[in-house]
Specification:
It is a single chain. The protein is mainly alpha-helical and 373 residues long. It is 67% helix and 0% strand. The chain is built from 16 helices and no strands. It has helices spanning 21-29, 34-60, 70-74, 81-86, 88-93, 95-99, 105-118, 129-149, 165-191, 196-210, 214-223, 237-262, 266-274, 279-309, 321-329, 338-367. α9 (165-191) packs across α12, α9 runs antiparallel to α15 and α14 (279-309) packs antiparallel against α16. The N and C termini lie far apart (59 Å).
């Protein structure tokens, strides 16, 4: 009798179809209110209006072949990617390609070495990351400079006045980022120091550089920096731009790191003191690792801004990626194809900036310890 009346719970019913899957996502994110519905309709209308004509112009009707503008002049309904194909090396390497067409392998080899050294850092199981990082930060800059500039290894000299295009943009941004990070850490610590002189100097430095536009700094670095050195010391424009960018970027990096330091619970500082650690020991072992983790979004955001702001070096006569693409599109042979030049430059900028953004997000997830402040 008892077995006949044993209660068996009914199986769970599936959730309504309108609350799961693609339909549920659209209902929650696109049509959750009358305002979201109206905005969704307007956005869809704009996308339908703009995207199909752009795809038609940029891909379906585009010109891809040929070696001159004749094929593009015959078909003006599509984009002229022939221009990008013909001027690709000029846009990537600037006057370096024009003056040394048979030496382009040198910057290509330098970039290849950089990628080869960077790839192991993304492999979780790679055991020698510390040594690779040291080689990347200490050894590679000299090797890369020797390959691109020459004079070392028996290579012919390629003056920095010939550097341009994407190569120059990448070099300026990389040097600015690598130099600004350690300087920014010291400035952030100095701004929070208990020593009045150190704190005052750090605050003055940060506020001065943050309050001055980068375009002004580049101009002053080009004009005034040589005045502080003996006459026999020759600073070319690229070196001046590197110094100005590094000093400027270090101030913004310092503020991003200071935000991470202020977000640290006071108990972390007190715990380091209770363990008997000295100041630099506590900073290196306890405080800075956590503060830098918190500061990753702000630091990477400032690095992305720096990468884009390298276009301002045109004020001192340097032709970076954007300005080289613009120069190539205004040549006699390709005059009138500015849109393609700007789109290609924008694509390269987007790839680099998006890559930095995705890497920072992956780094945040990897270092996430579950502590939410």
């Amino acid at each position: 009798m008892n077995a006949a009346f044993t209660h068996k719970p009914a199986p769970d019913r599936p959730p309504p179809r309108i609350s799961v899957g693609a339909v549920g996502w659209m209902r929650d994110n696109l049509f959750s209110s009358w305002m979201n519905t109206a905005l969704t309709i307007v956005a869809v209308y704009i996308l339908i209006t703009l995207i199909p004509p752009f795809v038609q112009w940029a891909l379906l009707d585009a010109n891809w072949g040929g070696r001159d503008r004749s094929i593009c002049d015959a078909n003006k309904d599509g984009a002229c990617w022939t221009f990008i194909k013909v001027r690709f090396l000029q846009i990537m390497f600037g006057l370096y390609y024009g003056a040394n067409p048979d030496q382009v392998w040198r910057p290509v080899l330098a970039f290849a070495l950089l990628i080869a050294l960077a790839i192991p850092l993304f492999v979780e199981s790679f055991p020698y990351k510390r040594y690779v990082s040291i080689g990347l930060l200490v050894v590679f800059p000299f090797v890369g400079y020797g390959l691109i500039h020459g004079q070392w290894f028996g290579l012919p000299v390629a003056e920095t006045s010939q550097w341009g295009g994407f190569m120059l943009t990448f070099v300026l941004a990389s040097v600015g980022i690598v130099c600004a990070l350690p300087i920014g850490i010291l400035l952030a610590l100095g701004r929070r120091s208990n020593m009045p002189l150190v704190r005052t100097l750090s605050v003055s430095y940060i506020e001065f550089w943050r309050g001055t536009p980068l375009i002004t700094i580049l101009f002053m670095a080009s004009v005034m920096l040589p005045l502080f050195f003996p006459a026999e010391v020759d600073f070319d424009k690229v070196a001046r731009a590197m110094i100005g960018i590094a000093l400027f970027q270090s101030a913004y990096t310092a503020e991003a790191i200071r935000g991470g330091l202020q977000a640290m619970p006071r108990g972390q500082f007190e715990g380091a003191d209770a363990m008997g650690l000295k100041y630099w020991q506590s900073m290196r072992l306890i405080i800075l690792p956590q503060a830098l983790k918190i500061s990753i979004p702000g630091i990477v955001n400032s690095f992305i801004e720096l990468f884009k702001d390298t276009s301002l070096v045109a004020i001192i006569g340097l032709l970076d990626l954007l300005n080289m693409a613009q120069t190539a599109s205004r040549s006699i042979e390709w005059k009138g194809y500015d849109i393609e030049a700007y789109l290609f430059a924008a694509l390269l900028f987007w790839i680099c900036c998006y890559g930095m953004s995705r890497y920072s997000q992956a780094l945040e997830r990897k270092l996430d310890t579950g502590h939410k402040h």
